[in-house]
Amino acid sequence: MKMSAADICQVLKEGELEKRSDNLLQFWKRKTCVLTTDSLNIYADTQKRSKGKELKLQSIKKVDCVERTGKFVYFTIVTTDNKEIDFRCSGEENCWNAVITMALIDFQNRKAIQDFKTRQDNESASPGQQERRMARAP
């Protein structure tokens, strides 16, 4: 399954999230975020989107620890190297955690289909595999 550039760069959600800083005091800092079909882009400034961090969906293991308080929804993104990144968003907005989770599931499903088709193509390209499979058939 080939993914077109339009599929890869499609914006799913854009808006503000608050990210907990990594420093000792762990302040919440407002960030502008853009979720696409293959990454979550985090920018420090709304106006200047030149300097930002890109978190690829392939490097996200799961969205965890969803907690709702009166004003905010808190959640944690766990990366494949077990790094935890804490976020919070306003409870009134569409919840970012759900949109990120659905994008992650969609990405993993597309990758699984692509891997399956690649494996299927590789098996059909080697005739020895087909003959061995036929020999085992009842």
Automatic annotation (TrEMBL):
InterPro entries, alphabetized: PH_domain (IPR001849), PHLA1/2/3 (IPR042832)
User: Which membrane topology term applies here?
Assistant: Peripheral membrane protein
| Residue ranges annotated for the PH domain, each copy included | 10-105
Q: What segment(s) does the record annotate as region Disordered?
A: 117-138
MF GO annotations: phosphatidylinositol phosphate binding
User: GO terms for CC?
Assistant: cytoplasm; membrane
| GO biological process entries | positive regulation of apoptotic process
* Principal location: cytoplasm
What keywords sit in the KW lines? Cytoplasm, Membrane
**What domain of life does the UniProt record list for this protein's source?**
Eukaryota
The record's listing under Pfam families reads: PH
Q: In which compartments does the protein localize?
A: Cytoplasm; Membrane
| Protein name, as recorded | PH domain-containing protein
What is the species listed in this Swiss-Prot or TrEMBL entry? Solea senegalensis (Senegalese sole)
